[in-house]
Amino acid sequence: MLKHFLKLRYLVVIIVFFTFINSLILIFLAAKRSFHGYGIVFFGYESEKPAPVEILESIDLFLIGLVFLIFSMGLTKLFLGKLIENGNDEDLPKWLRIKNFLELKMLLWQTILVSLVIFFVDQLFEKNDEMSWNLLIIPTAILMLSISMAVINKFENLK
Q1: How do the domains of the chain map onto residue ranges?
Q2: pLDDT for res 86
């Protein structure tokens, strides 16, 4: 029974493939938005949004694309690592040497937190004239996620 169940791990290939494609599309869209922001600054392109907002939104898209890329690489390493490589982590950057699912979650968590911070700054630029209390939801979420991550890190280091 377990032998048949372990064959399901090959479904991860489908997840990894589409997650990787999603990351490439997001990176392409971010580059397109960046070029549009540069066009506003240097060539006077018309836009509904000012150039800093366009560029901040492109950074946000780059970070979300990075989250998808890290997720696909992490899943590949965790589920398919023994099948596609000989277990050599020396070629990978230190932050990408993922050994278990918790490390992948923490890496994704950190990337999402950075993305939320960029999104909040983007919202500050975009809604400069019409600030409301609703804008405080994002920093509150950032604070709660950061505290949660710190608590989990503390308990993991105690083990």
Answers
A1: 2-158
A2: 59
